[in-house]
Amino acid sequence: MERKDKLILEMAEERFGKARLAELKTAFNNRPLNIIWAEGSDGKIKVALLQPLTPSALTSYCRSMAENKMEIGSKTLINDLWIDGDEELRDETTEEYLSAVMQVMNIVELKKSGFGKI
């Protein structure tokens, strides 16, 4: 396991608990969960746990993107995949929301910038 992935796993275990993470991974057929984070305006790290990308969530996102409605697609995708976390990451009125949107878009693009798999 790479150092970055190890740090992400530690952050997730501290925030959500080892037992709960294991239970969730089992619930999603051992597919990797996604964790996103951003530094909050208060200086604290805001964290959210997202389920693996689903076909229905991807379809909604792609449909919105095709209609040039990135904002709607990203918001819908965050809400569709959301398991638990700091609400600032899905609240459009916060600074952290834009970071969350970009990270969720990266999940769709299958890039590894700003999110981790645990």
Structural class: alpha+beta
Order of helices and strands: HHEEHHEHE
Average residue pLDDT: 86
Low-confidence stretches: none
Termini separation comes to 10 Å
Taken from the alpha-carbon principal axes, the silhouette is globular
Number of helices: 5
Approximate helicity band: 40-55%
Q: How many beta strands in the DSSP annotation? A: 4
* Rg from Cα: 14 Å
**Main beta sheet: strand number and arrangement?**
4 strands, antiparallel
Major β-sheet strand ordering: 3-2-1-4
**Fraction in beta strands:** 15-25%
Protein traits:
single chain, 118 residues, alpha+beta, 4 strands
Structure, explained:
This protein is of the alpha+beta class and 118 residues long. It is 53% helix and 16% strand. It contains five helices and four strands; from the N terminus they run H-H-E-E-H-H-E-H-E. It has helices spanning 3-16, 18-27, 55-66, 70-81, 95-109; strands spanning 34-39, 45-50, 82-85, 115-117. It has a four-stranded antiparallel sheet, with helices on both faces. Strand 1 (34-39) and strand 2 form a beta hairpin. Helix 1 crosses helix 2. The longest helix is centred in the C-terminal third of the chain and has 15 residues, at 95-109.
How would you summarize the topology of this molecule?
Blueprint: H1 3-16, H2 18-27, E1 34-39, E2 45-50, H3 55-66, H4 70-81, E3 82-85, H5 95-109, E4 115-117
Antiparallel strand pairs: 1-2, 1-4, 2-3
